[in-house]
Amino acid sequence: LGAMYEKGNGVTKDLNEARRLYLAAADKGNSNAMHNIGVLYAEGIDGKPDFKSASQWFRKSAAYGTADSQYNLAVLYARGIGVDRNLSEAYQWFALAAKAGDADAGKKRDEIAAGLDARTLAAVRHIVDTWVPDRAPEEAMTVKAPAGGWDQQAEPAKRKAPQRAQSRPAAQPI
To answer: What 3-state DSSP class applies to 102?
Structure first.
C-alpha cells in the first residue's frame, strides 16, 4: 500500500502517507520498507534530499541483506554524502551487494579496492566473507493468505432481513 501511495498507482500520490505506511512496516522489521524510506529521503520527500536520514535507513535495510540498500549505502560512503567518506565501508557494502548478484556493485567494489592498501583490503574482505545478515521477523516479510486463498472471493456475511412491525389486528368491537 505504501508503494501505491508513493507512485500514485490506484490512489492519489501522497508521499507522506507512503512514509507513514513504510514506517509502520519498518517498525515491524520489514527491510523493503526500510529501503523505501531511504529512497524517499534520498529523493527529497521533505523538499530537498536528506542523505543523512537516507543513509540511516539504507544501513538498517542493508543489515538485513537488501542488496539495493547495500549498493546505495556504498555510494554514499564512497562519495561522503550524508556520512563521512569511508572507502572501507564503501568496499564492504559494494562487495556484499555484488555477492547478492549486483554486477554494477562488483565493478564499483573493484574500483574502490584499487584505492585501499593491502592490509585494509584484507581486513574488509574478511568482514565481507564472514558477514551474516540479520534475520527479519517472519511476520514482517510475509502476509498470510486469507482462508480460501487470495483468488477466492470471501462469502459475504448473510444479512438478516429486517424485522417488519407486526400489523395489529383490527380493533374488536366491545
So the answer is: coil
Alpha helices in the chain (DSSP H): 2-7, 15-27, 31-43, 51-63, 67-79, 87-99, 103-113, 118-130, 138-141
Contact, 93 vs 70, CB < 8 A? yes
Q: Which residue has the cell 536528506?
A: 50
The torsion angle over the Cα atoms of residues 28, 94, 73 and 89, rounded to 10 degrees, is 110
- Asked if 38 and 64 touch (Cβ cutoff 8 Å), the reply is no
Dump pLDDT digits (tens) for 145-166. Answer: 778 777 776 555 555 555 544 4
**Band of residue 46 on the pLDDT scale cut at 50, 70, 90:** confident
121 by Cβ neighbours in 10 Å (0-12 / 13-18 / 19+) ranks as middle
Q: By the 8 A CB rule, do 5 and 17 touch?
A: yes
Mean pLDDT calculated for residue range 38-59: 96
pLDDT by residue (tens digit) across 2-26?
A: 999 999 999 999 999 999 999 999 9
Asked if residues 59 and 38 have their Cβ atoms less than 8 Å apart, the reply is no
What share of the chain has pLDDT > 90, as a percent?
76
The 3 state secondary structure assigned to 74-85 is: HHHHHHCCCCCC
